[in-house]
Amino acid sequence: xxxxxxxxxxxxxxxxxxxxxxxxxxxxxxxxxxxxxxxxxxxxxxxxxxxxxxxxxxxxxxxxxxxxxxxxxxxxxxxxxxxxxxxxxxxxxxxxxxxxxxxxxxxxxxxxxxxxxxxxxxxxxxxxxxxxxxxxxxxxxxxxxxxxxxxxxxxxxxxxxxxxxxxxxxxxxxxxxxxxxxxxxxxxxxx
Length: 191
Fold this sequence. Notes:
By secondary structure, the protein is an alpha/beta fold. It contains 6 helices and 7 strands, in the order αβαβαβαβαββαβ.
């Protein structure tokens, strides 16, 4: 989230971050967004325990209300319904801590280490109804070192995430003629 906010603060970056939404009221990212003058709101998913569609409808309303044309997921750990994904098809990006299609889902670093992977990394992809299966926009690889732990591997992958997410968003905006004035919303539980 912070990498996208920093990138968008540059005068030559082709998008503005207009809104940060978290499904956790205690997310540090909300305070960080506000410190940068970005509107931030919590929409706790637990307030909508059995009404995922209602929760996503509120998110959609907030996105439209803020004039957002693109949604970037940054650590947002909730699966979105196919209906919501369809509303934002081609306009919702996600960063995932593996070289997809390897290790979709959770615990990617532990799984890479457990399988003896020699290369790991991260992927920016378009969000589709199938988890972590959307078209790949960018990837960055890091070597898996013999003494790596989940923590050391995740730290090196995170460095690459901060590089490729703003780059992939810039490129995606550049190849999509419908983005005359791109306004981005970040869905993120944390910084």
